[in-house]
């Protein structure tokens, strides 16, 4: 069945229950960015496979809202679907809430699965619609009615992450959380985010591709920990450990009934941006609620010394794999029959040779020439472009290791470049260096630093539509908060111990894309009479393509940064490389 057929079926069910428009988000009940197939309803309905997007369907119209990372991909995937593309962030694009107020009349009903939208987002939606006398119903669950052969919830087991990798035991983490709960005056802390539960319990799973998480809910009280998970995910050994640690196991499906029956005098801590609306609506109405940013997100975003030591080990492993890959690619282009898919598979094979490799951290973005301009390009085996010994090749990839999660982008010149290509690459590099060299006072937020990565591009009338940096988990999700570096202010300061990406880019539609990404660790710089200052330490170890740089555009300071970075890469990786790969690396990291 096509997307048009799926929408027809959806509209029939909408008509039978009296819903005039239906909203389908890109989330699951845990508000995850990456989903198990069981919750990819928006993808099944529309045919759009991007990780971010909201589908709105009325009886006459349908629209998909997504951001600039997916504009080109959405254009291609929505052809003949009957769904209009709405480009978020562009001045003439209404948001989907505004679209509903214009396209529906007073008295209409908008349906949504309340388990797939945050508390705050649901409130904002309801408030907007109420102004024009449109009602929202958050209990419209059409997936089971419409979606034929819906994939089941994954049933893979979980496993323990040893403290030698994460630094703190499960008991120590729960004590930390309880101490913070006590400070807030909370008796119960309700947690639905999969990465937070995995971090708090030192467990990992296989339920979601690329993200080592497992489907569960967690409630921590003053004297009890309640874990909601399908019991078959637990080995007998893990089950015994949980019992010994006073962690009580309930069925995953019992969670909503459990919270409904919590005591009325409970004081419940909940993050309205990380818990879904249905959770909030099930909580006892008389119970006090403390709404604030997640305690666990705050704790896990600041790496401890053991985690930092391990992520540096992971970076060496990843650097070795990247050097082996780039050396192979240089020799293979023009001699072998290569396409974007084959090359991406080859990169994964190099990573898989590293000890404690647990898989890729996301689907490799492998874009040659014009496909590199599609920011989150998803390469397909059947449609992958041939790779020729000319132009740019962009590869954004990462690995999961027991020691940590990596995320790196390199843009490679596969042949001679023209002046514009070199200038574009160099301007992106200048922005990357500027952010890496930043020194800033304690209390600085990501929005304050974003301009550093864009300034060189702005002077040439150039820009990019995505954020500059996102948080990265520790053998967890490749995209984690709370920090980010982007033009929009999320109110979160950059703190010591946070690991963030540094990835400015430039994209010329139909021609090429350029992005240079390293991971950076926030560390202390100095304390003066003016306060405490922080800086970044580069974690990623991989050469930046010297053949793509117009050195005339670099300052003395920028050249020194590049030479020093390449010296560090060479010294860190050489002992782990074959003689051939080491000689290649020496050539690729020579001073300019």
Structure explained in plain terms:
The protein is α+β, with helices and mostly antiparallel strands. It has three domains: 3-146, 3-Layer(aba) Sandwich (Creatine Amidinohydrolase, Chain A, domain 1); 159-299, Creatine Amidinohydrolase, Chain A, domain 1 (3-Layer(aba) Sandwich); 305-558, Creatinase/methionine aminopeptidase superfamily (Creatine Amidinohydrolase, Alpha-Beta Complex). It is 35% helix and 21% strand. The protein has 19 helices and 28 strands. A six-stranded mixed beta sheet has the order 4-3-2-1-5-6. The longest helix is centred in the middle third of the chain and has 28 residues, at 305-332. The N and C termini lie far apart (57 Å). The mean pLDDT is 95.
């Amino acid at each position: 069945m096509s997307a048009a057929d799926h929408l027809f079926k959806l509209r029939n069910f909408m008509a039978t229950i009296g819903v005039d428009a239906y909203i389908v988000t890109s989330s699951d009940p845990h508000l995850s960015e990456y989903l198990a197939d069981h919750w990819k309803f928006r993808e099944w309905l529309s045919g759009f496979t991007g990780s971010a997007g909201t589908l709105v369907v009325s009886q006459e119209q349908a629209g998909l809202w997504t951001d600039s990372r997916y504009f080109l991909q959405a254009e291609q995937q929505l052809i003949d679907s009957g769904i209009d593309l709405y480009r978020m962030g562009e001045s003439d694009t209404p948001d989907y809430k505004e679209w509903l107020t214009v396209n529906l009349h007073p008295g209409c009903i908008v349906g949504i699965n309340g388990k797939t939208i945050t508390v705050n987002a649901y409130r904002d939606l309801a408030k907007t619609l109420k102004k024009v006398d449109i009602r929202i119903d958050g209990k419209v669950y059409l997936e089971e009615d419409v979606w034929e052969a819906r994939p089941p919830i994954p049933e893979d087991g979980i496993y323990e992450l040893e403290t030698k990798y994460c630094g703190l035991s499960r008991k120590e983490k729960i004590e930390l959380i309880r101490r913070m709960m006590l400070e807030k005056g909370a008796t119960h802390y309700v947690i639905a985010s999969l990465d937070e539960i995995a971090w708090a319990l030192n467990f990992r799973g296989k339920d979601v591709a690329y993200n080592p998480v497992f489907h569960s809910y967690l409630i921590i009280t003053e004297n009890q920990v309640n874990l909601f998970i399908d019991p078959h995910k637990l080995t007998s050994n893990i089950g015994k450990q949980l019992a010994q640690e006073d962690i009580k196991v309930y069925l995953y499906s019992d969670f909503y009934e459990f919270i409904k029956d919590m005591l009325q005098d409970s004081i419940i801590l909940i993050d309205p941006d990380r818990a879904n609306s249905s959770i909030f609506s099930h909580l006892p109405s008389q119970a006090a609620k403390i709404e604030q940013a997640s305690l666990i997100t705050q704790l896990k975003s600041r790496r401890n010394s053991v985690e930092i030591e391990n992520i540096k080990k992971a970076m060496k492993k990843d650097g070795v794999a990247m050097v082996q890959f780039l050396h192979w690619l240089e020799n293979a282009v023009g001699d072998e029959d290569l396409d974007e898919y084959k090359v991406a598979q080859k990169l994964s094979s190099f990573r898989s040779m590293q000890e404690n490799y647990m898989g890729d951290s996301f689907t490799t973005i492998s874009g040659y020439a014009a496909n590199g301009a599609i920011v989150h390009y998803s390469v397909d085996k059947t449609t992958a472009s041939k790779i020729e010994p000319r132009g740019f090749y962009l590869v954004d990839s990462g690995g999961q290791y027991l020691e940590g999660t990596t995320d790196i982008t390199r843009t490679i010149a596969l042949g001679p470049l023209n002046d514009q290509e070199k200038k574009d690459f160099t301007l992106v590099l200048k922005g990357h260096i500027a952010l890496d060299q930043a020194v800033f006072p304690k209390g600085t937020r990501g929005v304050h630093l974003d301009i550093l990565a864009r300034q060189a591009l702005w002077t040439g009338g150039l820009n990019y539509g995505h954020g500059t940096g996102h948080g990265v988990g520790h053998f967890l999700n490749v995209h984690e908060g709370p920090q980010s570096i982007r033009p929009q202010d999320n109110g979160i300061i950059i703190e010591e111990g946070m690991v963030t990406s540094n990835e400015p880019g430039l994209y010329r539609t139909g021609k090429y894309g350029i992005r240079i990404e390293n991971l950076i660790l926030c560390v202390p710089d100095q304390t003066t009479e003016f306060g405490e200052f922080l800086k970044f330490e580069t974690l990623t170890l991989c050469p930046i393509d010297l053949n793509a740089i117009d050195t005339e555009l670099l300052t003395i300071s920028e050249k020194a940064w590049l030479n020093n970075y390449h010296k560090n890469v060479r010294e860190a990786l050489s002992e782990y490389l074959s003689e051939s790969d080491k000689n290649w690396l020496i050539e690729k990291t020579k001073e300019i």
